[in-house]
Design goal:
The termini are far apart. The chain has helices at 28-39, 96-104, 122-135, 146-150, 152-158, 169-181, 228-231, 240-254, 274-284, 303-312, 338-351, 371-383, 402-408, 434-443; strands at residues 7-12, 15-17, 43-48, 73-75, 90-92, 111-116, 141-145, 163-164, 211-213, 216-217, 236-237, 258-261, 289-291, 314-322, 358-364, 387-392. It has 14 helices and 16 strands. The strands form four sheets. It has a six-stranded parallel β-sheet. Strands 3-1-6-7-8 form a five-stranded parallel β-sheet, sandwiched between helices. A three-stranded antiparallel β-sheet has the order 2-5-4. It has two domains: 7-181, 3-Layer(aba) Sandwich (Rossmann fold), CATH 3.40.50.280; 210-443, Aldolase class I (TIM Barrel), CATH 3.20.20.70. The longest helix has 15 residues, at 240-254.
Length: 449
């Protein structure tokens, strides 16, 4: 009799932050690795420390429209150096005792894989790994994901993981698993061809309130504030028919209507990519609600694209505007002009979208950014009949804006990634202010039609 296949536990860690909310947030990369491992004969288990649908959540569970909702949270001490921030710091996700009970009920894994998203959530990753080592002493823990890729040395020094892996996990996971478990199956997909990848193992979640969807990786733009080019330096796309098949499968299996696109550049080369997908969705009559939380490139919007989005069921549109100071935005990006913004809004309105459906992200808290410029941008967006949405700036190591952020920051950004937390406005000289946040929210109140 052949030995049992190795067990691998995949873990989505806690968040430590001043604020966090489930805006269509799922560890899609981790769920893809789970599918790849299972495809290659491994036994897979999954633990989501952020699980809003944990069976013990009971009355605490509070789903919102379209699959979003608040995480459970527990206040914890603020990190050293942030006592000047007048906000409550919390562990977002299930309580510690629930995690311990869940881990105690599992068979010991042969290997544990942990992901990490925001770099300033590093302490949540470290606490999660400490609990995993407490539950499964001697079992190897490997950390990957965005945090590990952007700050590998900090992750090796501070996370507690036995190994840190950078870059795309699907290229490394099978070799890593083979090295640590001795199970070495034949490769059953091409890591460089997204169409050969298995579908992510969404069914490992307790509930599937929405479909997290990635149609392509990478972005052709190199914006000064964004890490997309670091995380995915090569642009890769899936065939529209393959994406459509995935949507249909999850829709039929779970009855899910909401689809959240995780793409950084969904509309780039729309003629060959997004348009055929939207047209297939519209023709199928699936009655879906589509959402773009990662923002659309404004310069790619025209009447044809807007009409196709409307027919497909686009419900939440987010535009990557960032600033309305078009005369001086050359140091930030080169992806949109004032005329393109106005044209895009006009196309969307002609297609039938309301101002409340259309939101424009505006960066707040950039190095040396006067608050008057933020207020002017909000006013310009509202004048266009669109809802302004503040996107609080988080400095990211490796981006071209990083040196300016270090000069402007109130904290030593290189000392600890927690000082890059966008919730504390690290590059605003005056620091965090509840009065200014309240004013900002009032200025950005939804546009009514």
């Amino acid at each position: 009799m052949s030995p049992a296949a190795p067990r691998i536990l995949l873990v989505n860690p806690w968040i430590h932050d001043f604020a966090a909310y489930d805006f269509w947030a799922r560890p899609l990369g981790l769920l893809l690795l789970a599918a790849i491992l299972r495809q290659h004969g491994y036994r897979v288990a999954y633990c989501d420390c952020l699980d809003r649908f944990h069976p013990r959540a009971g009355a605490h569970r509070s789903p919102e429209r379209h699959g979003r909702g608040p995480f459970l949270k527990t206040p914890i001490p603020k990190p050293p150096g942030l006592n000047d921030v007048p906000r409550t710091f919390s562990r977002y996700g299930i309580p510690v005792e629930w995690l311990r009970e869940d881990l105690a009920a599992m068979a010991p894994p042969d290997l544990i894989l942990v992901t990490g998203l925001m770099t300033y959530w590093a302490s949540g990753v470290a606490e999660t790994i400490a609990e995993l080592k407490r539950a499964f002493p001697g079992r190897p823990v490997v950390l990957g994901g965005i945090y590990a890729t952007l700050l590998p040395e900090h992750a090796r020094r501070s996370s507690g993981a036995d190994r840190v892996v950078t870059g795309a996990g699907e290229k490394a996971v099978l070799e890593l698993a083979a090295e640590m478990t001795g199970h070495r199956p034949d490769l059953r997909f091409d890591p460089d061809d997204l169409d050969t990848h298995p579908l992510p193992a969404l069914e490992l979640q307790r509930q599937v309130p929405f479909i997290p969807l990635l149609t392509a990786r990478g972005c052709p733009y190199r914006c000064a504030y964004c890490a997309a080019a670091i995380l995915a330096p090569v642009r890769q796309r899936r065939r529209p028919e393959r994406v459509f098949e995935e949507i249909v499968q999850w829709h039929r299996r779970f009855g899910v209507r909401d689809v959240a696109f995780y793409d950084d550049a969904l509309l780039v080369d729309a003629e060959a990519h997004a348009l055929p997908l939207f047209e297939r969705i519209a023709a199928a009559g699936l009655n879906l609600r589509l959402h773009t939380p990662n923002a659309l490139h404004i310069g790619c919007l025209d009447d044809r694209v807007a009409r196709a989005m409307r027919r497909a069921g686009m419900a939440t549109i987010r535009l990557g505007l960032e600033t309305t100071d078009f005369a001086h935005r050359g140091d930030l990006d080169a992806k949109v002009s004032a005329g393109q913004f106005q044209q895009a809004v006009a196309c969307l309105r002609r297609a039938g979208f309301t101002g409340a459906q259309i939101g424009a992200y505006l960066l707040v808290g950039l190095p040396d950014q006067p608050m008057a410029a933020v207020e002017a941008a909000i006013a310009a967006v509202r004048a266009a009949g669109v809802t302004p949405i503040p996107a609080h700036y988080s400095p990211i190591a490796g981006t071209s804006l990083w040196p300016a952020a270090k000069r402007a920051a109130r904290y030593d950004l290189e000392a600890d990634p927690v000082f890059a937390n966008n919730a504390i406005w690290p590059c605003r000289p005056e620091g965090f202010s509840w009065a200014w946040l309240t004013r900002l929210k009032a200025l950005c109140a939804d546009v009514a039609d």
